[in-house]
Amino acid sequence: MISHASRRMFPSSACRMMSTSSFIASELTISPTSSPKEKLPKEELSFGDSFSDHMMEIDWTKEGGWGKPRISEYANLELSPASTGLHYGIQCFEGMKCYSTAEGGLRLFRPDRNMARLNSSMSRLAMPSFDGGELTSLLKEFCKVEESWVPQGAGYSLYLRPTAIGTHPFLGVDVSAHVKLFVIASPVGPYYPQGFKPVSLYADSVNKRAWPGGVGGFKLGGNYGPTIEPAKEAMAMGYNQVLWMWGDNDEVTECGAMNLFFVLEEDGKKILQTAPLDRGDILPGVTRQSIIDLAEGWEGVEVREEFPRMGDIKKAADEGRLLEAFGSGTAAVVSPIERIHYEGSDIDIDAGMGSDSITKRAWDDLNAIYYGEVNGPEGWGVDI
Ligand SMILES: *Cc1c(COP(=O)(O)O)cnc(C)c1O
Asked: How far is the CA of 164 from the centre of ligand 1 (A)?
């Protein structure tokens, strides 16, 4: 333990790095359900509305630290109505998938990235840290228990939702003295069962998702609830999702709950442009980073991590240099964009998924790794 005096001398992140305690995967206990649920035919799965037989839980208290991880029947939580998580948004989450590979195995994709992000979200909410390798081991055990829930075939997977909430019954705005980390799983089908369906975006000049110095770079539940009403308004106007902007120059940040990429033509090259992470208002997507990492090896493509400005995007479109636009995230992988409403008019984009399309290439290359056709760079495809 570090003393109170030294605690004050360090920025809080340094403090957190000095904490070494974590739950331990080898202490896992498994209580299998005695009443397994009926599974839906995989064609009837819709995103996030049915859940597997089990859940994993790990509790933490200020006095006792992390408890032992356990897997037991999926069930409602018992919570005090005074729980901090229900009052002050002391909640954060992750989204990742377990894939059934062509060879009949199970695979995770870059789980270390999700573990690092969950630790970073939790520490932003003054929740305890944990060892990412231990949680990855536990997720592997959980996926093995739920193996029969991992639907097979292209586009299918078991979506995993690690979540941390404050459970301390206390109405003070303070560090939550009790925390629960849990994982639930939902079998999901292809995001585009009928083939790609490009989306349209409404560039919202009024509502902001995140801002410099804010918490947009963390996966905190509190970032998402307030986006629903603006999204509803965009939908009422005939658009699928909101394009979020920031600042006087209408910098493009993200769309919906996805990172956003543009493909622009410049001097005979293709520029793949997306917002940078260093300002803290962009969610560091695993899919985003993976597309950047892959594209760095693509001939004729230059990756540019700089805020796109909507005015420049409109100008590029007018000059015929806006080739593609797409959102990226674990749920949809890539989401081609065919239209953006900006300042009173629509920018149309050819969202074709032709053979020279960057969107298609990102889709193909990522899926090949997800489903074990290739291994991809070291550490990406993690077999269970
Ligand atoms: C989760 C999320 C993403 C995508 O992250 P992935 O790790 O690629 O799934 C992008 N933007 C926001 C706002 C998100 O919440």
From this structure: 17
Q: What is the pLDDT of residues 252-278, one digit of tens each?
A: 999 999 999 999 999 999 999 999 999
CA of 222 to the centre of ligand 1 (A): 14
283 and 149 together in one domain: no
List strand residue ranges (DSSP E) for the chain, in order. Answer: 29-30, 54-61, 65-66, 70-73, 91-93, 96-100, 106-109, 157-166, 178-188, 199-204, 241-246, 251-255, 258-266, 269-274, 301-305, 322-329, 333-342, 345-348, 381-383
Q: Is residue 193 part of a domain?
A: no
- Pocket residue to mutate for ligand 1, from 286, 288, 294, 366, most atoms within 8 A of Cβ: 288
Give the model confidence (pLDDT) of 124-146 as tens digits. Answer: 999 999 999 999 999 999 999 99
Asked if residue 229 and residue 96 are part of one domain, the reply reads no
In a domain, 381, yes or no: no
- Residue 290 Cα, ligand 1 centroid: separation in angstroms? 12
Is the C-beta atom of 283 inside 6 A of ligand 1? yes
* pTM for the predicted model, two decimal places: 0.92
What's the number of domains the chain is made of?
A: 2
Q: What is the DSSP letter of 332?
A: T
- The CATH number for 206's domain is 3.20.10.10
